[in-house]
Amino acid sequence: MTLMELGHQVTMLRQQFPSLSRLHRGQPVAYLDGPAGTQVPQRVIDAISDYLSHRNANHGGLFATSRESDAMLDEAHRAAVDLLGAGDSDCVYFGPNMTTLTFALSRALARTWKPGDEIVVTRLDHDANVTPWVLAAKDADATVQYVDFHRQDCTLDMDDLRSKLSDRTRLVAVGCASNSTGNINPVREICAAAHQVGALAFLDAVHFAPHALIDIAEFGCDFLACSAYKFFGPHIGIMWGRRELLENLTPYKLRPATNELPGKWMTGTQNHECIAGVLAAIDYLADLGRDVVSDQTLDRRSALSASYKAVGDYERSLVARLLAGLEANSEVKVWGITDPERFAERLPTVSITHRRLRPIEIAERLDQKGIFVWHGNYYALQITETLGLEPDGMVRIGLVHYNTEDEIDRLLLALNAL
Ligand SMILES: Cc1ncc(COP(=O)(O)O)c(C=O)c1O
To answer: Over the stretch 176-190, which tens digit does the pLDDT of each residue have?
Structure first.
């Protein structure tokens, strides 16, 4: 499919997202805030409403609504493994959000750590993949090692990472991609390095999930977390763990709750309506893939693979246009990879600072033009601290596949006019 055909596809698929037709101050809204949460297609809204209207019930009852609800939950687990490339639907579980799921997992893992053990985190990560491990390490009297990043392009310093690994390392926690600078980490290499010293590898795929195909089998991780509200679904988190680990670890759980997977890890009553929404979001992405390759018979995983291939191609064309435009603005500095030769190493998430204006001023002024961007540190606190950009942080322009060239041009014009 050519880029022009993809552009046409985007015009069509935008019609599925009701919020994209919103006007603000008389202008169409350009949602460039995707990394903080994407908009949702109508089918996700319908799935949530349909669940509450017709199948609303608790889990495990012997009556019609509960059986139907459980069938939907089973299907959502299968859809989630298709999204993650994980195979075993018992090993995926849902929870309020990635942060809460990670805190819970960190407490279970910390029970296996002892004084002198080491945990490796990075200065590139969202704090949800740092502080849960730091606090768990503190409880276990374990030590935390921080992996640095290269100042020039904000990529992870792999030499530093290797130097932090030893036979004392119990866990390496790394993001698949930075929610601040958009760069993609070499996760396969990182997981292999962790395993080489006998450590476990935890991946935060929250920022990666709307842009590229997650492939647990290929990554070789032991745990992986993501959040559906970042990939066109509702506000709910998803965690995957290796079966033997999920079976052998002891989570904090209630006595009557099951010890079977995946229920063992899902505390309390789940947000069934949002899980119905996750299923619809994954099927939205799969149908996009089927449309792109004009093959309605593709199984869900293959369809997701086709979808992400098209999404990636389209988003790279968008980010190329954005970065070229930003480069032409002498008052703007881009933090992260800007070399077009290296676009395969980054996602379409771009953080900038301005020579004269504070990020908060830029975000406010863009809002007046109907352009929604984020400002501050977006919880990727170590990056802004390390770069000396606190307390103001940066401005984040986050593109996803429903964004358009026209929106980028509007943004560039607005930035030039500041
Ligand atoms: C990279 C990354 N990790 C983790 C999180 C936390 O996700 P949640 O809001 O689901 O806890 C975010 C949220 O912005 C994120 O961007």
So the answer is: 999 999 999 999 999
What's the CATH code, domain 46-281? Answer: 3.40.640.10
Q: How many Å apart are CA 413 and CA 336, to the nearest integer?
A: 22
Q: Which CATH architecture has domain 3-41+300-416?
A: Alpha-Beta Complex (3.90)
Q: Is 81 in the pocket of ligand 1 (CB under 6 A)?
A: no
pTM for the complete prediction? 0.97
In the chain, ranges of CATH 3.40.640.10 domains: 46-281
Left (φ > 0), alpha (ψ -120 to 50) or beta: where does 182 sit? left
CA angle 184, 163, 209 (to 5 degrees): 20
- If one residue of 206, 278, 351, 383 were mutated to test the ligand 1 pocket, choosing by the most ligand atoms within 8 A of its CB, it would be 206
Ligand 1 pocket, 180 CB below 6 A? no
Q: What is the mean pLDDT of the chain?
A: 97
Atom of ligand 1 nearest to the CA of 235: 10
